[in-house]
Design a protein that fits this description.
Layout: E1 14-17, H1 27-39, E2 42-45, H2 52-62, E3 70-75, H3 79-93, E4 98-104, H4 112-124, E5 128-134, H5 140-148, E6 154-160, E7 163-164, H6 168-177, E8 181-184, H7 202-214, H8 219-229, E9 233-238, H9 243-251, H10 259-274
Parallel strand pairs: 1-2, 1-9, 2-3, 3-4, 4-5, 5-6, 6-8, 8-9
Antiparallel strand pairs: 6-7
Helix pairs in contact: 1-2, 5-6, 7-10
The protein binds NADP nicotinamide-adenine-dinucleotide phosphate.
Residues 17-20, 44, 46, 73, 134, 184-190, 194, 196-197, 220, 237-242, 245, 248-249 line the site of NADP nicotinamide-adenine-dinucleotide phosphate (NAP).
């Protein structure tokens, strides 16, 4: 597998996730996408709920001059799946170019050399600029191998105050190598582990002394500043279906937290992962 490492462009510290704008029949979804476009942030794109591509197609068509750079989830299990997923995204969103392809299912690929050729060719044609590996916890060993071989430009996984979806050893290796990380789920996700909405979550209770120590004006700020305090994180990817919450996300302070607070949160992550 040839190396795709080293070509990641500079991202905006905050990336607009699209998990909250899934309904093309709801004009509010298009308006939220347009507001994020106006703010100039990057987008993270997958066709969540089967509706995101249509929402984006409408939003992009309304303001072609401000189409955002997009991180797009693409198939990495088969060469055919890769080509199909890229073509499907371009056709249904109106995007001409994918800034970063998020290669999904790479450890399951049984034709890695052929896939690498397809990735390289798409990059040479200028259709996809960079490649990152989509990571879930069971891929931790595969991440270690890929990092050692410098295969990808970066690695993307859930990384927020509530979770780090990568083994402690693989994470330490990424940090030691200075490999770029794209941190997903700024607020802990849309399920029961959402830090802002689930006041009773035991992890939120464990984080409470660190939140108090952080001096953050509110919990939203704590969520945004934590991932951006980590040495190799280049963006935090959060989502909302609310115009007010989008403005709060886009306007909150992004300065790094104090090192003691960061170390405390990372110690909890280490402990939670060791208990898995
Ligand atoms: N494997 C993958 O590639 C993958 C997996 C998961 C996520 N992602 C990406 O990461 C993005 C973010 O993850 P996510 O959407 O799962 O979760 P998230 O951004 O961590 O959390 C979104 C949730 O937080 C709420 N929220 C946001 N701002 C808020 C505020 N100011 N006050 C109260 N609640 C607020 C949202 O509710 P409201 O809508 O009511 O504001 C929503 O329920 C996704 O949209 C997607 O682009 C990728």
């Amino acid at each position: 597998m040839p190396s795709f490492a080293g070509s990641l462009p500079t991202l905006t510290p905050r990336t607009m996730g699209t998990g909250g704008i899934t309904d093309p029949s709801n004009l509010a979804c298009v308006r939220i996408a347009r507001a994020a476009m106006d703010a100039g942030v990057w987008f993270h794109v997958a066709d969540y709920g089967g509706g995101v591509y249509a929402v984006l197609k409408q939003a992009f068509a309304e303001d072609l001059a401000h189409m955002p750079p997009c991180i797009v989830k693409i198939d990495g299990i088969t060469v055919q799946g890769f080509h199909d997923s890229v073509a499907d995204c371009l056709r249904r969103t109106g995007l001409e170019r994918i800034a970063i392809g998020q290669v999904c299912g790479y450890p399951l690929c049984e034709e890695k050399e052929a896939l690498a050729e397809a990735l390289a060719e798409m990059r040479t044609r200028g259709v996809i600029g960079s490649y990152i590996m989509d990571v879930i916890f069971p891929y931790s060993a595969a991440v270690r191998e890929a990092v050692a071989a410098h295969i990808f430009d970066g690695y993307i996984f859930y990384l927020n105050v509530m979770e780090r979806e990568l083994s402690n050893a693989a994470y330490a290796q990424l940090v030691a190598d200075g490999t770029p990380i794209l941190a997903m789920r700024t607020f802990g996700g849309r399920d029961g582990a959402n830090y802002l909405k689930n006041a009773d979550h035991p992890r939120r209770a464990a984080l409470e002394p660190l939140y108090r120590q952080s001096g953050c004006a509110d919990r939203l700020e704590f969520c945004v500043r934590f991932p951006l305090s980590l040495p190799t994180v280049c963006t935090t990817i959060g989502s909302t279906g609310s115009p007010e919450n989008l403005q709060a996300f886009l306007s909150v302070d992004t300065a790094p937290l104090d090192a003691d607070v960061v170390a405390g949160i990372e110690a909890l992550h280490g402990q939670w992962n060791a208990e898995r």
